[in-house]
Design brief:
Layout lengths: L1 H26 L4 H21 L5 H4 L1 E9 L4 H12 L3 E7 L6 H5 L3 E6 L10 H22 L5 E6 L5 H12 L2 E6 L3 H9 L4 H13 L5 E4 L2 H11 L4 E2 L13 H12 L17 E3 L3 E4 L4 E4 L5 E6 L9 H15 L7 E6 L5 H10 L5 E4 L8 H5 L4 E4 L11 H8 L4 E4 L14 E4 L2 H11 L8 H12 L5 H8 L1 H5 L2
Parallel strand pairs: 1-2, 1-4, 2-3, 4-5, 5-6, 6-7, 11-12, 11-14, 12-13, 14-15, 15-16
Antiparallel strand pairs: 8-9, 9-10
Helix pairs in contact: 1-2, 6-7, 8-9, 12-16
C-alpha cells in the first residue's frame, strides 16, 4: 500500500510542478524559463520512471499480474493460470471485471489478489464510432491507473481477445516498469468483431492493424492450437508456444450422491428437474426426474424411466448459432411422435451473454412435449458437477478465426462426457469423429446423431457407451502438468 501511495504522490507532485513551470513559461519573457521548465520536467519524469521500475529483488520476481479485459468468473483459462502460478509460490494480482464469482479455489488462495475493474460504456447517444472511441479512451485511463498503482510485477500475462486497448497498455506498462510481457492468444479480436460488423468495416480493419502491430511486441506468446501457432508464425511473425486447454482436476465423473444433491438444488428453481409423478406419496424416497434417494438406507439410484440429460454451455455470442440446436430438438421431437423408441430429453444450456434474450424468445415459441429446455446460470463449483452428471454434450462453437478450440469440450472430455460438436477448420485437434464424439455440419445431421446415440438409452452400451469408455481409457494430460511443461519455464527464465 505504501508503494501505491508513493507512486500516486510522486505523480501528483510531478503534475503540480509541471503546471507551475509551464505557467512561468507562458507569463515570462526570460529565455531561461523554457530551459528550466524542460529540465525540471525531464528530471521529474526520469525520477518517476526510476520509481516505477524499482525492483525489490526476490519479492518482485515472485509477483505476476494476470490481466483479462473481461469477466474474471467467465475466464476459466486465466483462472487456471492464476492457480498454477499460486501453486508455484507466485503472488498473483488478477485484474479484470468482477461480474461473476470465480471458482472457490481462486478465492481461497491467499496469494491471489483480485483487483476488480469497472466495465465502461463510453458516451451514451451520438454516433456509434464516438461511443466506441470514448469507451477505449476511458479503458486506457483505467488500465493505466490500475497497472501503475500496483507493485512492480515481474511478468504481465494477459488474455487476447479482448486486446483493444489492453495489449498496447500492458506493453507500455511493461516497458515503464521493466516487466516481461506475455500474451495468451485465445483467438483474434478482429475476427470476432467481423462477425457483427463485416470484414471491411473500418473498426474491424483498425482492430486487425492494431493486433498485428502490437502483438509482436510481447516477449513471449502462448496460443491454444497448433493451427494458430502456425498462423501466428507465418502471418504475424510471432513465435508462440501451444498450450492446449486441458481439464482441471475438478472436471470428472460425478458420483451419484453429488448428482442427486445438485438435481435437488436445481429442482427448487427449475421445474425441468422436478419429479413428474404427482402420486408419489412415499415420504421415505426423495426424488428428482433423474434420481431417487432411499432415505431409510441413504442410497441413491438413477431412475430407469429418467430422461436423457443433454448439456451445452455458451456465452450467447455471434460465434454460436443456437438455432441449429433448437431445430435439431424439434426434429428429435418429431422422431418420438413418429414412433421412434427414444427417451425424453432435458436440455440444459448454461451461460450468460448478449444474445440470450433473443434465443429465449425462440425457446418460448417452441411447442415441445418430449423435450424440455432450461437455461440456468450455474455457480462455478456446480458447473463441473452438472457436466459430470450429463449423458451427452453439444458444442455449437464456430471459431471466428478457425484457429481456436472450444474449452467447453475440453471440460466435457475431462468428465468423460461424449460430445457432438459443429465442424470447423481445426476441430480435429480436439474432437476425433467416431472416437470420442461426433462432428456435425447442420441441424438435420445433429438430430440424426442424437437419435443414433440415444436409441439404447439408458443402457450403458451402444455408441454412447463406447464413446464414454474411449474417453475413460484415453484420459490425457491434466492442466497442471501441461502448464508446468509449457509456461513455468517462461516465467522462471532469467
Amino acid at each position: 500500500m505504501a508503494a501505491h501511495c508513493t507512486c500516486t504522490a510522486f505523480l501528483t507532485v510531478f503534475i503540480l510542478v509541471s503546471s507551475v513551470l509551464t505557467a512561468c513559461f507562458l507569463s515570462g519573457s526570460d529565455g531561461t524559463c523554457p530551459v528550466v521548465t524542460l529540465t525540471a520536467v525531464t528530471v521529474l519524469a526520469l525520477l518517476w520512471l526510476r520509481r516505477l521500475r524499482r525492483r525489490r529483488g526476490a519479492e518482485t520476481d515472485r509477483r505476476v499480474c494476470v490481466l483479462v479485459l473481461g469477466d474474471i468468473g467467465r475466464s476459466p483459462r486465466m483462472q487456471y493460470h492464476s492457480l498454477s502460478l499460486s501453486k508455484h509460490g507466485f503472488n498473483v494480482t488478477f485484474v479484470g471485471f468482477y461480474d461473476s464469482k470465480p471458482h472457490p479455489d481462486v478465492l481461497r488462495q491467499e496469494n491471489i489478489q483480485i483487483v476488480p475493474m469497472t466495465e465502461v460504456k463510453g458516451l451514451r447517444g451520438g454516433p456509434r464510432l464516438l461511443t466506441y472511441v470514448t469507451k477505449v479512451i476511458l479503458q486506457v485511463l483505467q488500465l493505466l491507473f490500475v497497472l501503475l498503482r500496483m507493485d512492480t510485477q515481474s511478468h504481465i500475462l494477459m488474455q487476447n481477445p479482448p486486446g483493444l486497448p489492453s495489449i498496447a497498455v500492458a506493453w507500455l506498462v511493461s516497458v515503464l516498469r521493466g516487466s516481461t510481457f506475455i500474451i495468451d492468444w485465445h483467438n483474434y479480436g478482429y475476427t470476432i468483431m467481423a462477425l457483427s460488423h463485416g470484414q471491411r468495416h473500418p473498426l474491424v480493419r483498425m482492430a486487425k492493424w492494431y493486433e498485428h502491430f502490437f502483438g509482436p511486441l510481447a516477449a513471449h506468446n502462448l496460443c491454444v492450437t497448433n493451427a494458430m501457432k502456425d498462423d501466428l508464425q507465418e502471418n504475424w511473425g510471432i513465435k508462440a508456444t501451444t498450450l492446449y486447454d486441458r481439464p482441471a482436476s475438478i472436471f470428472r465423473e460425478t458420483p451419484l450422491e453429488l448428482q442427486h444433491e445438485l438435481f435437488m438444488r436445481l429442482a427448487d428453481t427449475y421445474p425441468q428437474f422436478q419429479s413428474e409423478r404427482s402420486d408419489e406419496a412415499d415420504v421415505q424416497v426423495e426424488r428428482t426426474v433423474f434420481s431417487a434417494r432411499d432415505l431409510t438406507g441413504d442410497t441413491v439410484t438413477l431412475r430407469a424411466e429418467r430422461p436423457a440429460l443433454l448439456i451445452s454451455s455458451t456465452s450467447w455470442t455471434e460465434d454460436e448459432d443456437f438455432s441449429v440446436l433448437l431445430k435439431a430438438l424439434e426434429e428429435y421431437e418429431g422422431f418420438i411422435k413418429g414412433g421412434s423408441s427414444l427417451p425424453s430429453l432435458v436440455c440444459v444450456i448454461t451461460g450468460k451473454g448478449p444474445q440470450k434474450e433473443h434465443y429465449m424468445k425462440l425457446i418460448d415459441s417452441l411447442s415441445l412435449q418430449h423435450v424440455k429446455i432450461c437455461t440456468p446460470w450455474l455457480e462455478a463449483e456446480d458447473y463441473p458437477v452438472l457436466l459430470g452428471s450429463a449423458d451427452l454434450g453439444v458444442c455449437l462453437h464456430m471459431s471466428s478465426s478457425g484457429l481456436d478450440l472450444p474449452m467447453k469440450v475440453v471440460d466435457m472430455f475431462g468428465c468423460c462426457l461424449p460430445v457432438c460438436a459443429i465442424d470447423f477448420n481445426c476441430l480435429h485437434e480436439l474432437v476425433k469423429h467416431e472416437e470420442n464424439g461426433l462432428i456435425f455440419r447442420d441441424s438435420q445431421e445433429l438430430a440424426e446423431q442424437l437419435k443414433s446415440l440415444l436409441s439404447e438409452f439408458p443402457s450403458s452400451g451402444g455408441r454412447l457407451g463406447a464413446f464414454r469408455s474411449s474417453l475413460r481409457s484415453s484420459r490425457g494430460q491434466r492442466w497442471d502438468d501441461n502448464w508446468d511443461q509449457n509456461v513455468l519455464p517462461l516465467i522462471t527464465a532469467p
